[in-house]
Amino acid sequence: MIKKEAKDWLERTKVVHAGELPDAVTGASAPNLVMSSTFVVEANLPFSAEDISEDMPHIYTRWSNPTVAQLESKLCALDNAEACLCFASGMAAVTGLFTELLSQGDHLLLSDVTYAGVREFSNDILPKFGVEVTTVTMSDLAAVEAALQPNTKLVWIETPCNPLMRLTDIEAVASLVHGVGAVLGVDSTFASPIATKPLDLGADYVMHSLTKYIGGHGDAMGGAILSNKQAIADLRKSVGIHSGAVLSPFNAWLIMRGAATLSLRMKAHEENALKVASFLEVQPKVSQVCYPGLPSHPQHDLAKKQMRNYSGMLTFQVADGVAMAEQLSKKLSVFHYAVSLGHHRSLIYYMATDELQASSYKLTKEQLESYRAFAGEGLFRVSVGIEDAQDLCDDLAQALA
Ligand SMILES: *Cc1c(COP(=O)(O)O)cnc(C)c1O
User: What is the band of 52 on the pLDDT scale with cuts at 50, 70, 90?
Assistant: First the structure.
């Protein structure tokens, strides 16, 4: 039998082994952490970013680094991508890709609900450089079709989207986007590569905040963009090397160590989230629960089609969210009342609709109506961790009382 390559392994083998090889000199089984910023090389290697090719030896860590390269290659195996570039954070990955792809006169079509930082960057910074930005509710395909313009260069979606848990049909949107010659980027942070592989569904770029599920332990920030070889080579030259928001090798090492258990953790996140969501659905003080894995999610059929794991993110609403936020922050003992998500610990945070609308989203009347259908006056965003589900439900029960 021919020895299988990383791309042919099954997923749990990939998360453990892909991208990692025993050290050729020492035989070390665990990945080396190479913190060196520079590398001893032969004379007369090209020195300008313009002349750098992907197969060159490591020269300087802002250009490439052996530890970061191992993580990049693991992420490629997980998302069925040809190439990957890691960044210092998820935001550095998004803003790097946007500045690479968009020029003066281009149009960015953005999902009306995205990670708030992405929306704020698009509202406040991109127009300064002559980029036109409009937004649309991406779950409404007719609206997406109508919002595409002759100068649309990039369409950016997030599924499930933060914080609503509303889904976008990647395959359907990809075909509309390609119809006008634009490219589609997907922020797949909430899904992780275990749930959804956007490149297989027609997306041109996939992005992850490695700070969330992939790192998984809340102790290292990072981001990644995955795409074809040429696209990533271009991105490395123009954005990695010149903007310089590259991933620290130490964080790459931590994230790689976290990623080894990604399949196991996602299984536990999903199992716990389903239990916590079902528990919340019958609590008298809870008016609405939103979790893609529940039949009550308005897009449960799309979730079944597009997600191989429903992930650990859910939201719920109560009558007076502001007062309840105060109460939960004081009474919860297992959950941490904190932003971020995808960590092994359970996290919860309240997001008031009016506040987000004013600071970040600036939705139209119709968009806001659709937002309120999922969020009402505000929602608790819950990142269900991998603790015992019974302890999580008990903690919520005593804190909600
Ligand atoms: C957290 C997050 C980001 C930003 O990632 P950072 O690593 O915090 O910069 C982008 N998109 C989504 C969906 C996120 O949850």
Answer: confident
